[in-house]
Design a protein that fits this description.
- By secondary structure, this protein is mostly beta strands.
- It has three helices and 25 strands.
- The longest helix is centred in the N-terminal third of the chain and has 22 residues.
Length: about 425
């Protein structure tokens, strides 16, 4: 009897230990060491120590006919080296649970090597629905990105953002319906600085003070190697918290500005070939790293103002081909993008009261970028040529631009990446 009780006790203890182990989260480390080099032929609008390249700056001519923005430069940096944790855990309310923590060293600091959160979220997956809470890719771009390896990943021709969010996905046959509420943190909207309409800066306060979160709705269809989708994004900002009336008294402001950005996208794979494309009609989408924004269209007698959104249309497509070698693979990619500033439906009151990412005299911009990437086991080596041309000109009252001239930057990018 004592032996039986001892065996039963040991068995019970073992079962308890097994149950505890089965509920313990599983953690998997991933990431890469990335060395990124580039050569540019002129000054550019860029970030991340010039690695995140958007467009070349306009000519800045002196009295001798010299372009002061025609400055070539070269860089080699590894600050986008990445570390991440994929975590899977026990069931919660009938859902499979998971989480992700991802960081790199491209944060803001005096050394430019500050650890930065890229993604940090928890997710619950049921059979036909899922809920994600935390910082992740903006759903307007996260479901399909270009295959270029340059850090800007197709911006400003495509939306680019990672942001805190609450995302709900519902599967209905071959369709996935998405509803997301988003909150700004790292990728910000432009607006007047400290309620001064004649100055401009970036801040997440404009979105926070509006109370209403950014809303994104999407429907995506997937059948085998074909995928297509459409989405709409609604962003509301409160540019000022107060204004001065004609008597010089500070008055709380209720002014809001809203922008609607819509997108269509599709991708298809056939053998070694891949095709992707997206078209986006943007309003006030500077927080998505697009050349967009808004401005004051009317100043009322009591000191209040009305705003209007700057409109733009962008489109991109890339074609990839993978060639299998005896050792590793070669991936060829050809990316093409085009953007057009279509102005505002109303005239702006003054150019100094416009709050945009980019420059106020841009009419159009385009890029054709071929690249080649060799992958063997954990190592990747790549080369990309990225010429970007902008049509700068004279801005009209509605924000559209004419009488343009072209400015081009030629960028050559090189990559050496070790994945783990």
């Amino acid at each position: 009897m004592k032996k039986f009780l001892l065996i039963a006790a040991i068995a019970t203890f073992a079962l308890q230990m097994h149950a505890q182990e089965s509920t313990k989260p599983s953690v998997k480390l991933y990431g890469f060491v990335r060395n990124y080099a580039s050569i540019d032929t002129r000054d550019n609008l860029s970030s991340n120590s010039d690695q995140f390249n958007l467009i070349p700056k306009d000519e800045r001519m002196n009295e001798y006919g010299d372009d002061l923005n025609k400055n070539a430069d070269i860089l080699l940096l590894s600050i986008t080296t990445r570390l991440g944790l994929n975590i899977t855990g026990p069931e919660f309310l009938g859902a499979k649970t998971s989480a992700k923590i991802e960081a790199d060293f491209a944060g803001f600091g005096t050394s430019n090597t500050v650890l930065r959160i890229r993604q940090a979220y928890a997710k619950m997956d049921w059979e036909k629905q899922s809920l994600l809470v935390g910082q992740a890719w903006h759903p307007m771009m996260g479901d399909m990105m270009p295959d270029v390896f340059s850090l800007a990943t197709g911006a400003p021709f495509t939306p680019f953002s990672r942001t805190p969010q609450v995302r709900y996905d519902r599967k209905a046959g071959k369709f996935t319906l998405t509803a997301t509420a988003l909150y700004q943190f790292q990728y910000l909207s432009y607006g007047p600085k400290e309620n001064d309409l004649n100055s401009s800066t970036t801040s997440f306060e404009y979105a926070r003070k509006a109370i209403v979160p950014e809303i994104y709705l999407q429907a995506m269809y997937k059948n085998g190697n074909f995928m297509a989708g459409a989405g709409v994004d609604i962003l509301t900002l409160k540019p000022r918290t107060e204004f001065t009336d004609p008597k010089g008294i500070q008055i709380p402001s209720d002014e809001l500005v809203s922008g609607i950005t819509s997108t269509l996208f599709a991708s298809y794979k056939s053998g070694n070939w891949g095709f992707k494309g997206r078209i986006t009609a943007a309003q006030n989408a500077s927080h998505l790293n697009m050349l967009s924004g808004y401005g004051v269209t009317e100043i009322k007698e009591n000191g209040e103002v009305e705003y209007g959104c700057l409109n733009s249309v962008t489109a991109w497509m890339d074609v990839t081909y993978k060639q299998q070698l005896k050792r590793g693979t070669l991936t060829y990619c050809l990316f093409g993008g085009y953007g057009k500033n279509t102005g505002c439906k109303d005239d702006f009151a003054d150019p100094s009261m416009m709050y945009i990412r980019g420059f106020k005299n841009i009419d159009n911009f385009w890029r054709v970028a071929p690249s080649i990437l060799y992958t063997h086991n954990a190592m990747q080596i790549g080369l990309e040529y990225e010429p970007t041309t902008v049509g700068y000109g004279t801005m009209n009252a509605d924000g559209s631009v004419d009488k343009t001239h072209s400015v081009t930057n030629h960028r050559v990018c090189a990559l050496l990446k070790y994945n783990f």
